[in-house]
């Protein structure tokens, strides 16, 4: 990952995969076994670490703004890379709101960003239900119930925290990394 600054323009540069436009799940044939729970948690945890790096460790920080399954490209060992940085916003700092034209995939952006066009430290935590008895209905049917109930409950709890309408009650991306890291190791 790098940034080039030339004549008042900034370019975000990232390594290119062999086929950067592929969507991983298209490559899984219908007659093949779907990804298991552990692999899915590994991908989710790794993608969240990528968001954390962009937001908290990269300088200047980057708000990704387009997190969705088709923009997460796992390699052969299912280590994910974020792709499609065309909507990324470079240079947002702290809880200072930066006005910006609202862009991204509707339904994958934080409500405060969709309503006001302002980004916060918690804007990237949004894209990640209330009756625990119904949680299994949220799981991919192709798993055919082959997932740990406790792990699913924890994943749903993490998602519910990230989906809070108010940014002030959503977790920081660092907290989501820790929680998903725990799930991917168990």
From TrEMBL:
Main subcellular localisation: membrane
GO cellular component: membrane
Entries under Gene3D superfamilies matching the protein: Transferase(Phosphotransferase) domain 1
InterPro entries: Kinase-like_dom_sf, Prot_kinase_dom, Tyr_kinase_cat_dom
GO molecular function, one term: ATP binding
Keywords noted in UniProt: Kinase, Membrane, Serine/threonine-protein kinase, Transferase
Domain Protein kinase: start-end pairs: 1-186
Localization per record: Membrane
SUPFAM superfamilies membership: Protein kinase-like (PK-like)
This protein's name: Protein kinase domain-containing protein
